[in-house]
């Protein structure tokens, strides 16, 4: 064959190869579509009514090892039918997890997530690792702009590599913040280096007209302005962690007329300040837990506070001295009108030189007098090194026979049942 004929032959073969490639590509696409149709036909989930298949997917949120974090997006990439089910189930998108550091692209993803949730209220969990510069304000600004959908907000702060006195700017340029559906706000720190502006926490609380619970654990606050008292009429539960790093000073600036549950380590609030807060709020407190180890309160201040809360049914005090406990028992025994509705009393005593302390016999018998005028359903006193007198044990065991839960001793040993 001549050179021209060979070139023409090669061109014809190339043309045929291109045709066959296009045919192969069409066949591969047809095969993929047929496989999807076969999978859909064989998939029991796809054949179920949407109400049932949606419920199955919702159950997968709780059982997946990664929790709700990745399940919805994973389901989008399996079968077309599963994609349709996931997108038609707004409840699957009710939990959003943001992990800082993250790229700016997440600011584009968040609105899509909120849109898929439809009219359902959202739970948002924000975790921050490392330096405060890892907080991405482009992403958080999107979250605050969609604050109208937030029902629960949790901030988990792992600041093990931060520098001392570093302050985290939560809100950036977003102000004011509107959180009309928010019911719970939780801020937890794994360590104790970072500070949070008190004014921004106030903005979150003040922008949530339906909030019922605020939890602050190992959070240090920076009073960045002259705070005025903030009234939060719906807040019923306020919990500060039981550690020296839980900054409870912000409580002094809150007025909480609906407060039912309060836990304060008494790190920075004095007894007189707590008394002022109790008087100012005049709340129907039912559950109160107080720390004692920092010496910010005197016994007479505690008794005056308790006298203002006749609605209290549960009282817990941790790290008190033996003297403070004895004085509490005396006040309860001598004044039946003090905590008349007390049903649950918990005392975590302060160890004496790393050993369990002892209560004197007088203190135990005073406790029995205090219990005799109240319907106590649960008593927990620990740690104590030695057993109470036999007559005291007999009284406690008699209460136990009526259904009351009695624990006196160490966490491992209960003298009442020993």
Largest sheet: 12 strands, parallel
Write down the overall geometry.
elongated
Rg on CA atoms, Å: 31 Å
Number of helices: 12
Distance between the termini: 109 Å
Question: Could you give the order of strands across the largest sheet?
Answer: 1-2-3-4-6-9-11-12-13-14-15-16
Query: How helical, in percent, are the residues?
Result: 25-40%
The SSE order reads HHHHEHEHEEEHEEEEEEHEHEHEHEHE
Which structural class do you get from the secondary structure elements?
A: alpha/beta
Explained architecture:
The chain is of the alpha/beta class and 418 residues long. The chain has a domain at 313-418. The chain is built from 12 helices and 16 strands. It has helices at residues 3-42, 50-63, 71-76, 80-87, 106-116, 137-145, 198-206, 271-281, 299-307, 322-334, 361-372, 390-401, and strands at 95-100, 122-129, 150-158, 184-189, 195-197, 213-217, 220-222, 230-231, 237-240, 254-255, 261-264, 287-291, 314-318, 344-348, 378-382, 405-408. Strands 1-2-3-4-6-9-11-12-13-14-15-16 form a 12-stranded parallel sheet, with helices on one face. The chain has a two-stranded parallel sheet with strand order 5-7. A two-stranded parallel ribbon has the order 8-10. Helix 11 links the parallel strand 14 (344-348) and strand 15 (378-382). Helix 5 (106-116) packs parallel to helix 6. The longest helix is centred in the first third of the chain and has 40 residues, at 3-42. It is elongated, with a radius of gyration of 31 Å. The N and C termini lie far apart (109 Å). The model is unreliable at 62-69 (pLDDT under 50). Residues 3-37 form a coiled coil. Keywords: Coiled coil. It comes from Mycena sanguinolenta.
């Amino acid at each position: 064959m001549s050179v021209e004929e060979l070139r023409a032959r090669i061109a014809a073969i190339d043309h045929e190869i291109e045709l066959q490639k296009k045919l192969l590509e069409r066949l591969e696409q047809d095969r993929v579509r047929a496989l999807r149709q076969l999978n859909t036909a064989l998939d029991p989930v796809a054949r179920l009514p949407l109400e049932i298949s949606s419920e199955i997917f919702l159950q997968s949120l709780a059982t997946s090892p990664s929790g709700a974090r990745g399940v919805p997006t994973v389901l989008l990439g399996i079968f077309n039918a599963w994609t349709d089910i996931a997108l038609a189930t707004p409840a699957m998108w009710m939990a959003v997890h943001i992990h800082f550091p993250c790229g700016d692209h997440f600011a584009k993803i968040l609105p899509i997530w909120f849109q898929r949730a439809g009219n359902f209220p959202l739970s948002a969990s924000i975790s921050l690792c490392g330096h405060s510069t890892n907080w991405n304000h482009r992403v958080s600004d999107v979250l605050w702009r969609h604050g109208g959908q937030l029902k629960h907000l949790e901030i988990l702060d792992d600041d093990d590599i931060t520098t001392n006195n570093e302050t985290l700017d939560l809100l950036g340029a977003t102000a004011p913040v509107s959180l009309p559906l928010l019911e719970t706000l939780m801020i937890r720190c794994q360590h104790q280096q970072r500070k949070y502006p008190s004014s921004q926490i106030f903005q979150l609380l003040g922008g949530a007209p339906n909030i019922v619970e605020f939890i602050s654990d190992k959070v240090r606050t920076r009073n960045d302005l002259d705070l005025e008292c903030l009234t939060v009429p719906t807040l019923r539960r306020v919990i500060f962690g039981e550690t020296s790093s839980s900054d409870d000073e912000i409580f002094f600036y809150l007025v909480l007329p609906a407060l039912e549950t309060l836990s304060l380590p008494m790190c920075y609030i004095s007894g007189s300040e707590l008394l002022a807060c109790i008087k100012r709020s005049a709340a129907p407190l039912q559950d109160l837990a107080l720390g004692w180890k920092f010496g910010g309160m005197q016994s007479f201040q505690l008794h005056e506070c308790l006298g203002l809360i006749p609605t209290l049914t549960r009282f817990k005090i941790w790290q008190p001295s033996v003297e403070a406990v004895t004085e509490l028992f005396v006040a309860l025994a001598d004044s039946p009108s003090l905590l008349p509705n007390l049903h649950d009393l918990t005392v975590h005593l302060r160890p004496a030189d790393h050993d369990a302390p002892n209560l004197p016999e007088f203190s135990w018998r005073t406790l029995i007098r205090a219990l005799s005028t109240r319907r106590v359903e649960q008593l927990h006193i620990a740690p104590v090194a030695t057993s109470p007198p036999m007559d005291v044990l007999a009284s406690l065991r008699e209460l136990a026979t009526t259904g009351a839960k009695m624990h006196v001793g160490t966490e491992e040993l209960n003298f009442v049942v020993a």
